[in-house]
Amino acid sequence: MKRIVILGSTGSIGINTLEVIRQHPDRFNVVGLAAGSNVEEMIRQAEEFRPRIISMEEESAAETVRQGVSYPVEVVWGGEGLLVLASLKESDYVVSAIVGSRGLPPTLAAIQAGKTIGLANKESLVMGGSLVMEASRKAGVSILPIDSEHSALFQSMNGEPRERIRRILVTASGGSFRDWPRERLVTATKEEALQHPNWSMGAKVTIDSATLMNKGLEVIEARWLFDLPYDQIDVLIHPESIIHSLVEYEDGAMMAQLGTPDMKVPIQYALSYPERLPLKGEPLDLVAIGELHFRAPDLDRFPCLKIAYTCGRQGGTLPTVMNAANEIAVERFLAGQLSFLGIEEVLEEVLSRHTLVPHPTIDDLFEADRWAREMARQCDARVG
Ligand SMILES: NC(=O)C1=CN([C@@H]2O[C@H](COP(=O)(O)OP(=O)(O)OC[C@H]3O[C@@H](n4cnc5c(N)ncnc54)[C@H](OP(=O)(O)O)[C@@H]3O)[C@@H](O)[C@H]2O)C=CC1
Ligand SMILES: CC(=O)[C@@H](O)[C@H](O)COP(=O)(O)O
Ligand SMILES: [Mn+2]
Questions:
Q1: Of ligand 1's atoms, which has the minimum distance to the CA of residue 122?
Q2: Given this model, what pLDDT does residue 384 score?
């Protein structure tokens, strides 16, 4: 029985994770849940899964949950609360599914406490990939990818010689504006951007998909998870999101993982690895789909992907700054304070002002993150 803590249980990944666990009560037991402000969903989840401990972002939300749950449960809160959940002694597995760079401290804490990690929170690898991977090597813990592309890559490397990989191809749907000309992006609205063609996900990752920054974050995530240089990581636009990514080997063979766009598949694989369990869901009907399509990404229409490659290659504090500026820009876009193309303008502006720290400590990363957020908030007024 795996004893699981879910950080971000009320979100899209968190809810899908609980659905997987619901299907396998003999395999998985929920011992802790953490979320931000959604007290109603947390109370409902607590009543069903009976975790021993819960964490919420604010003290007031924690108190509401404590009073709303019908059994004696420990409720903690804030950044400290997340660290308590991450290193809980009754758990052996932590699902890291908080959105954004605030997922980094609890992910690192869980690694240092020796927990196996199911990683959805790609921002923690973008912000601090080198430190996270070094910590996982030191602690001897596995980081199992939940992100669909990285799960596909992981599955496509299973039993194959890593040194024979020629390159990996990270597939991308192209997002909500895949076929829009650049001129039309000027007026793109939040409602339009939130209409992802294939996946139902949280707002932040859906906007990142629309700018192609999600693919940029995923390229950096792949660099760290699979220890590959950037010139062996390519992006392939695949509008149907059926092939979740591919690995090309030196003999020309390509291995891929296919499936319907359903996050329960990679989540369950990460939870059950190295086993493969049954899962309820629509089987993939390739005859009904008929055709799959592919094309190269258009970096002129979607420069965020180019920005991410540049930041990843230069390294140091640049990916941290890019990630933080992107989080603020997306937040402001969702709040109606920034245009869609304003997101890339904020990134360019903040990055142009940053002085790169080449071998950052964890404190350097947090300082770069703080600085970039402040800068990105200031830029908003000019491009909004
Ligand atoms: N959704 C998907 O299909 C995929 C997501 N990912 C990645 O997974 C991560 C989560 O994405 P997704 O589930 O879509 O996001 P959602 O926005 O749906 O959920 C985010 C979760 O984080 C919680 N949260 C936010 N702030 C805090 C905080 N300060 N303390 C504790 N919890 C907090 C939210 O709680 P609350 O709602 O209670 O405020 C919620 O549970 C992201 O990094 C994303 O890129 C990767 C691949 C696919
Ligand atoms: C489901 C998942 O893993 C998302 O990260 C997804 O990849 C987003 O779709 P895009 O391919 O549009 O970025
Ligand atoms: Mn993905």
A1: 43
A2: 52
